[in-house]
Amino acid sequence: MENLIALVNRLQRACTALGDHGEESSLPTLWDALPSIAVVGGQSSGKSSVLESIVGKDFLPRGSGIVTRRPLVLQLHRIDEGKEYAEFAHAPRKRFTDFAAVRKEIADETDRETGRSKQISSVPIYLSIYSPNVVNLTLVDLPGLTKVAVEGQSDSIVMDIENMVRSYIEKPNCIILAISPANQDLATSDAIKISREVDPKGERTFGVLTKIDLMDKGTDAVDMLEGRSYKLQFPWIGVVNRSQADINKNTDMIAARRREREYFANTPEYRHLAHRMGSEHLGKVLSKHLETVIKSRIPGLQSLINKTIIEIETELSRLGKPIATDAGGKLYMIMEICRAFDGNFKEHLDGVRPGGDKIYNVFDNQLPAALKRLQFDKQLAMDNVRKLITEADGYQPHLIAPEQGYRRLIESSLVTIKGPAEAAVDTVHAILKELVHKAISETVELKQYPSLRVEVGNAAIESLDRMRDESKKATLQLVEMEYSYLTVDFFRKLPQDIEKGGNPTHSIFDRYNDSYLRRIGSNVLSYVNMVCGSLRNSIPKSIVYCQVREAKRSLLDHFFTELGAKEGRHLGTLLDEDPAVMQRRVSLGKRLELYRAAQAEIDSVAWSK
Asked: Where does the Dynamin-type G domain start and stop, copy by copy (predicted)?
């Protein structure tokens, strides 16, 4: 069972080393989940003397006012033989065999954290003591509760200490060691008052009475020790500490323990209770109880640790990888992020993600509708046909068929198709830009680096702009091709005019009559409609080839070329992660390290059992 307490000792040390000592956090802290014994008492209650009696050494700072200004996590390790010594977690390679030096180091380490301002800090000091005269036990010595601030302390110190003590003892895994002087009324005991608030049924509170030997003559502590004055689930334990005179004389702790045993054994009022009195008994009871509590908490600890590891890994995944330090690593990191964005963009076009279907809607609905809205009837109205045919004839009317007039009518009609063609190009361009913005917002890694997100977005839009210009050029060329070279077969298949060869009985100017002109307009309209049908199929092909296909193939090619020429410091400016995110990742990384170590520690103990 002894390795259970050693397990908690190691985990508590790891917690503090990695900055997890019960501070506010969005994730549960391992510190809060570990069973511990918190020592609570008012100033001058004899709290320090109780701890020194349990340890058997004089090692705690003494003086007037608030001496303990940081939590002291006191880890006791029983050794079979050898010289007793102490170690601090903040000085792991230094052994203290002189316990006067331990006292000085506690005071110095307190000042390092709080300065010499007499203020308090919640960051614990870790002290391990190895001795054959101790039981395996861990205690947390908290600042003594006080009612007034001393010179050099803020007015809030009284409430600050109370809040710190409460933050420890209100946790359900905390065992409370409430120190109260027997020569004062229990109703006014600071330790009992605050422990009652957090543990009203006394289910995790051990009551310790000090200064029993200093009670007024004719009075005793029997009612208190037997639980009649204040009932707790566990029996009260009385201790007799060294007097101030003993402390001044540096009276040996072993001798003090012996006198304590003799006091209870020889005092008639306490003789029947002597077997469960004294600091030695207190240490053994606490050690045994702490082992029992730890053993009962192991399944819950394992569950908490496994759950928290998953939560931390999930958040770290969301935060993304840390920034590489070298130029090559930064370039690789940027390229990987860009590929992730490019992959998301392609998935939109390929139908894996929504949005690509809007492009097909342009080809299947918007373009055909726009072509239908072209008003060829106005272009081929009788007056316009007569005007263009006459102008095309010039000073000499056409002899057989008005070929130049046909060409002008067809060209003036087909030119109007450029409008819907350009509109289709622009609409697809707008859709592609929208998909770029969607892909950027869906690329988790880009959220991590605002400057890179802007650069990638700008580079993608610039590429799309170039592709749009090329697409518009190619698409308009399709239209121009149609009126640059007419399909001769269409006209050869038209019904022939019975007066094609001319009739000497009619004037040539009769060819400009309404019936003749209507026939020309009808033929031109049929040809234009045929070309519209052809362009309805070829324009989408041109747009897909020049815009969609190129966007899938080379959206960031130009950006990659420029990226390769950048120096390391310029690459660093693209990876300008929010400092708060960087700090959060570091903090989570440390916590993950802590929980994985804890998982291995607990599993090893569980398997050994």
From this structure: 31-299
